Each structure stands twice: as structure tokens, then as C-alpha cells.
């Protein structure tokens, strides 16, 4: 198994800032992230204060919390929790509180916050999806590995996790701790990647494969969600106009802004590295599991000069040429 490098305090600090300040991917009217939006505003106000050395302060906080998981979802939850404790106007009551009945785990409260009206249950998720066009004129969002989809994730959350506080066992647990859940919030962050070339001929999700959940996702997306683009490897040269400073982003750094502290490449070098990656000749630093990931999209980012420093401009997923066709193969009779 490939050794994974330790996560630096600097990276953890950037992840905490991103987890707290980044825009929500979608907002469900029954589970509006009111307290999360307050945290987002507090984080952005702190970022605007040039007098504060936030990265130093947050790095020390991260060290004290022993944030060392290499699983992206767990790291996001830990980073979001750290942001709540550092910036949030609401106290944290519990985090990752399991509900267990006769030895069986019924679910877990990702985060419980204290508010004036009672406890607030926040269900947390971070996701990265690529959009494929549909016959209905909107995008259907697939994970890089194709099996995961935003509509399926939302269905699972609505049917189970967001209803946990209604369970009798959960209510009894809350009572034993001295509080009751009065509000439930859905907090989904991450990136949506749109097709880069709107004129390209892409396979689309046909009308018979569309579901009510897919339609619901379209109506819930926020206008300011984090976004990027995806493009097939064959058309990679179309990105040359985005400049000559690029970085390859392994999954371990998806939760932080790209910058010149990572290995910067000119566009020609970027193309060479991507070609190697997709011809199964990738060096190990390009992928945590090279043999498995050679057919998976690769995330990269263009960098731009701001105040004398190279910072992230735009994110892209570079996909195998058959990625969209393979994604559609997962749309089948399992769908309702």
C-alpha cells in the first residue's frame, strides 16, 4: 500500500477555512442551513480581516484536534467542526453522536449545535460531481467513479439521515443528554463540474431515465455553488488559453484552494503528465491507486497571479474519452 504523506497544519488550516466559508451546493426548503450560513458569513468576515493571522491560529487548532484522517468526507466533517468551534456563533453540543439500539447502530448525528430554540442537527456532506446533459435541458450529476450521483445522495439523506431525530430511540438519547432537536439542517458543499465545451456532442440522459429526484436537484442548486468544468482528454488543448500555470490536484488536496505551494506546471508539462496518467504510465504521485484510477477523471487547476502570488483560478476534471458513455451505463432498471 502506498504511504500517504502527513497532512500539514497549513493544509488543515486551509481546509477549515474552506469548509466554513465555501458556498452551499444546494438548499432544501425543509432543511435550510440557516446556522451554517451564519458560520459562512463569520468565516468570510474573518478572511477579510487582513490583521489576523488565521492560518497560524487555525493550524494550532487543527493540531489540538488531531485531524489526521485521509478520508475526504471525514476530513470535511472535522474541518467544518473546527470552523464551528473557531468562528461559529453557536456552541457545539455533540459531534458524530451515534444512536444505538440493542447493539445496532441506527444512525449518527454529524453535528448538534445549541441555539436559542433548542438543538440543531446538521447533516454534513462534501461531494464532487460532473454534469451530463439530459433530455429535460438540465444536468444530471455523476461522481468521478460514475456510480455515485447527486440525486441518489439527496434521496438517501431525505429518507434516512435527516429523519434521525424523529426516531424514538434518538429522542430518548437526546432527553438523556438534556436537550431536544428542534431544527434539522442539510449542509452539502463541494464542486459541480460543467461540460467545458458546450458545442461538444455528449451523450445525454434520456427522458425515460429521468426521476423526480433528478428534477428536484435542479430546483435546489444554489446560484453561487462552487463550480468548475470537465473536458475529455482528446480536447485538452482547448484549455491552453487558461494560462501557463497549472497544478494537478490529487484527492488529498480537494478541500483546499490550489496555489503555487503545490508543484506548478506549464501547460505543455501538464499535457505530458495527463497523457502519462491516462496511458497507465502514471507516476505514483499522480494517484493514490494508479492502476485503479487510470480510467478515472483527474482534477487539475489553473493558477492566476493575485497580489504577486499564484492562486487558484479554475478547476477542471480531465476525463477519459469514454467517461460519459460509461457513466450512462449505470442508469438502468435500479432507478425508480
Strand content: 25-35%
* Quantity of strands, as a count: 9
Order of helices and strands: HHHHEEEEHHEHEEHHEEH
Tertiary shape: globular
- Judged by helices, strands and strand pairing, the structural class is alpha/beta
Tell me about the largest β-sheet: 9 strands, mixed
Helix content: 25-40%
Tell me the Rg in angstroms. Answer: 21 Å
Mean pLDDT: 87
The helix tally amounts to 10
Essential attributes:
336 residues, alpha/beta, 10 helices, 9 strands, 32% helix, globular
Q: What secondary-structure arrangement, pairings included, does this model have?
A:
Elements: H1 9-21, H2 34-47, H3 54-65, H4 72-87, E1 92-101, E2 104-115, E3 118-133, E4 139-142, H5 150-159, H6 168-177, E5 181-195, H7 212-220, E6 227-232, E7 246-248, H8 267-278, H9 290-293, E8 298-306, E9 309-319, H10 323-328
Helix pairs in contact: 1-3, 1-4, 3-4, 5-7
Amino acid at each position: 500500500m502506498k504511504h500517504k504523506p502527513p497532512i500539514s497544519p497549513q493544509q488543515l488550516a486551509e481546509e477549515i477555512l474552506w469548509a466554513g466559508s465555501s458556498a452551499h451546493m444546494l438548499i432544501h426548503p425543509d432543511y435550510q442551513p440557516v446556522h451554517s450560513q451564519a458560520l459562512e458569513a463569520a468565516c468570510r468576515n474573518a478572511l477579510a480581516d487582513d490583521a489576523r493571522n488565521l492560518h497560524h491560529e487555525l493550524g494550532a487548532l487543527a493540531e489540538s484536534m488531531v485531524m489526521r484522517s485521509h478520508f475526504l468526507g471525514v476530513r470535511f466533517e472535522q474541518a467544518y467542526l473546527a470552523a464551528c468551534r473557531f468562528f461559529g456563533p453557536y456552541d457545539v453540543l455533540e459531534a458524530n453522536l451515534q444512536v444505538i439500539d440493542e447493539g445496532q447502530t441506527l444512525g449518527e448525528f454529524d453535528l448538534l449545535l445549541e441555539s436559542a430554540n433548542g438543538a440543531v442537527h446538521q447533516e454534513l456532506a462534501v461531494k464532487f460531481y460532473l454534469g451530463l446533459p439530459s433530455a429535460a435541458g438540465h444536468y444530471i450529476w455523476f461522481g468521478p467513479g460514475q456510480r455515485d450521483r447527486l440525486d441518489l445522495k439527496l434521496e438517501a439523506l431525505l429518507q434516512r439521515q435527516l429523519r434521525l431525530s424523529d426516531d424514538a430511540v434518538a429522542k430518548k438519547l437526546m432527553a438523556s443528554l438534556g436537550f431536544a432537536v428542534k431544527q434539522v439542517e442539510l449542509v452539502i458543499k463541494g464542486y459541480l463540474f460543467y461540460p467545458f465545451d458546450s458545442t461538444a456532442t455528449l451523450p445525454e440522459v434520456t427522458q425515460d431515465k429521468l426521476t423526480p429526484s433528478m428534477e428536484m436537484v435542479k430546483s435546489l442548486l444554489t446560484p453561487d455553488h462552487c463550480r468548475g468544468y470537465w473536458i475529455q482528454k482528446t480536447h485538452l488543448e482547448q484549455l491552453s488559453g487558461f494560462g501557463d500555470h497549472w497544478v494537478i490536484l490529487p484527492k488529498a488536496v480537494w478541500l483546499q484552494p490550489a496555489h503555487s505551494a503545490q508543484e506548478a506546471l506549464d501547460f505543455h508539462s501538464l499535457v505530458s503528465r495527463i497523457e502519462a496518467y491516462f496511458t497507465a504510465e502514471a507516476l505514483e504521485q499522480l494517484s493514490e491507486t494508479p492502476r485503479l484510477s487510470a480510467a478515472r477523471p483527474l482534477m487539475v487547476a489553473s493558477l492566476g497571479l493575485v497580489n504577486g502570488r499564484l492562486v487558484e483560478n479554475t478547476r477542471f476534471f480531465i476525463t477519459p474519452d469514454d467517461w460519459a458513455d460509461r457513466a450512462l451505463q449505470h442508469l438502468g432498471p435500479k432507478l425508480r
